[in-house]
Specification:
Elements: E1 5-12, E2 17-25, H1 31-46, E3 55-61, E4 64-70, H2 77-82, H3 89-108, E5 111-112, E6 121-123, E7 132-134, E8 141-142, H4 162-165, H5 173-188, H6 198-207, H7 222-231, H8 242-246, H9 249-252, H10 254-257, H11 264-279
Antiparallel strand pairs: 1-2, 2-4, 3-4, 5-8, 6-7
Amino acid sequence: RGAFSVVRRCVKKSSSQEYAAKIINTKKLSARDHQKLEREARICRLLKHPNIVRLHDSISEEGFHYLVFDLVTGGELFEDIVAREYYSEADASHCIHQILESVNHIHQHDIVHRDLKPENLLLASKCKGAAVKLADFGLAIEVQGEQQAWFGFAGTPGYLSPEVLRKDPYGKPVDIWACGVILYILLVGYPPFWDEDQHKLYQQIKAGAYDFPSPEWDTVTPEAKNLINQMLTINPAKRITADQALKHPWVCQRSTVASMMHRQETVECLRKFNARRKLK
């Protein structure tokens, strides 16, 4: 439920297929919010990928707009992980692989998500091995290739990139920075940058001040740390791209490169991290 919207389960009568309908009360929307809604629908219509929540229809009528999406029933990826009996680095690799596939797809279509975070990573169903789906394109923007520009301040504090915080021109690399933050959390259950004081948090991010503390990082392979370092590179021009990250050995050769050791501490830390997020 948003300020002007609710999400309801709906059924297509002709096929009995279930979908999720985002119902927006357009009577309360400003002209700017109308533009944002049109942008979200336009962007979602473009994107057809197994790791992205698909828009099936966009219907406008007097006072209401309906966006009809895939019904995803598996809940948040991070909530699913803490319910597992077994979770390893190889599982984290499989998760980030799917996230990078979705990001690579949107970047190929010159879309930047701008709000990659655990809340927007859902699972298609409750089945074991269900696909990870990227959701919520409400802050997504259209860009021109690799061109960088100032598109305004947008995102969620812990996942913001240094260039956005510096108010520099930005583009696709902001999504990769957020993937780096997500991957770090997937491996140890806590974020690379954290402070109760938002100003201090932003100073940490701008300085790229993160590390791999003992003992929890001692059991993580050097290849995993290498990928994080390439994603959390302060200079966006030097940051790895989604396409390059998909070719990283830790991602594309996970069965031989990523560790299979169960990470109990990660699951326990992630449980606390999830609880903290829900309080916000």
